[in-house]
Amino acid sequence: MSNNQQGVTDGIFPIGAKNDAYAQYFVGQSYLNTLINDPTVNVGVDNVTFEPGCRNNWHIHHDGFQLLLVTGGSGWYQEAGQPARKLHAGDVVVTHDGVKHWHGATKDSWFSHIAITAGTPEWLAAVSDEDYDALAD
């Protein structure tokens, strides 16, 4: 079993289905479980799970923000022009409006977080294998 797989897949929130709707914005396999889908609430709340090595593309949230509440495994978060930050269960990330960033699992660990998101995402280029592989687990 891969590192942290059971802790992530058997977490407090189910991992959900394969994230096929957003697969074009990810390298590797992710899963999405929408926790709040109420049109009268102007934020999305999702449990996002990443298999080892999976990460999303660089992206920006316009007219909003993104909060990440790490619930399991090990992952990465990086803002453009900044070093990547390694994440573990219990970490919290605040991404402000207009900040280019990406997040995902480490090479050898499953990773999950609750994403609380407002605004409109702009999806950009994938994080290159070269840049991702240079991160020290």
Number of strands: 10
Helix content: under 10%
Structural class: mainly beta
How many DSSP helices? 2
Order of H and E elements: HEEEEEEEEEEH
Mean pLDDT: 95
Unreliable runs: none
Tell the overall outline.
Answer: globular
Description:
By secondary structure, the protein is mainly beta. 7% of the residues lie in helices and 49% in strands. The chain is built from 2 helices and 10 strands. It has helices at residues 5-9, 129-133, and strands at 17-18, 26-27, 30-36, 44-50, 55-56, 59-79, 85-88, 92-95, 101-105, 111-123. The strands form 2 sheets. Strands 1, 3, 4, 6, 7, 8, 9 and 10 form an 8-stranded antiparallel beta sheet that branches. Strands 2-5 form a two-stranded antiparallel sheet. Strand 3 (30-36) and strand 4 (44-50) form a beta hairpin. It is globular and about 40 Å long. The mean pLDDT is 95.
Key phrases:
7% helix; two-stranded antiparallel sheet; 137 residues; 10 strands; eight-stranded antiparallel sheet; mainly beta; 2 helices; globular
